[in-house]
Amino acid sequence: MLQWTDIVRYAKYGNPEPDRRVERTDAGWQEILTPGQYRVMRQKGTEPPYRNLYCRSYEPGRYVCAGCGSDLFNSTEKYHAISGWPSFTQPAGKAAVKYAFDDSHGMTRIEALCNVCDSHLGHVFPDGPEPAGLRYCINSQSLRRVDNR
């Protein structure tokens, strides 16, 4: 189980290596992503709160990266955070998510990215429920829900 200290350490000193890498040109990303997905995932945008696909969805399954299909989160870790975006307590695995400091908009936050394709997912905060206290606040545009294997 990841803790906030793990997240900060990864952002500061380096993330676990993913099992694989997916890289595309900017034009290649524009070909496979919708305009909304491209704005969020490649330009680090944010979708409107509460008006997104997975904010209020609690169906069982896995959430994979909309860009490369990598496992990111499991529905068993999803909870109602009242933040306006899908929220999770833990990623699907230690190397699923990549972390980076984000000093944009006059704040210091930790950005969550897909560790396989570097797509922007959202941010992670230390104000989630116990036992780890993490809240992964993720844009629905970055995700695709699939049934469990």
Radius of gyration: 14 Å
- CATH H-level superfamily: Peptide methionine sulfoxide reductase
Tell me what portion of residues adopts beta-strand conformation. 25-35%
Give the count of helical stretches: 3
- Which CATH-level-2 architecture? Beta Complex
Structural class: alpha+beta
**What characteristic shape results from the CA principal axes?**
globular
Strand order of the largest sheet: 3-4-8-7-6-5
Largest sheet: 6 strands, antiparallel
Number of strands: 9
**Helical residue percent?**
10-25%
Q: What is the first-to-last residue Cα distance?
A: 22 Å
Task: Give me the secondary-structure topology.
Blueprint: H1 4-13, H2 26-32, H3 35-41, E1 62-65, E2 71-74, E3 78-79, E4 87-88, E5 97-102, E6 109-114, E7 120-125, E8 135-138, E9 143-146
Antiparallel strand pairs: 1-2, 1-9, 3-4, 4-8, 5-6, 6-7, 7-8
Describe, in plain words, how this protein is organized in 3D.
Helices cover 16% and strands 26% of the residues. The chain is of the alpha+beta class and 149 residues long. The strands form two sheets. The chain has a six-stranded antiparallel sheet with strand order 3-4-8-7-6-5, with helices on one face. Strands 2-1-9 form a three-stranded antiparallel sheet, with no helix packed on it.
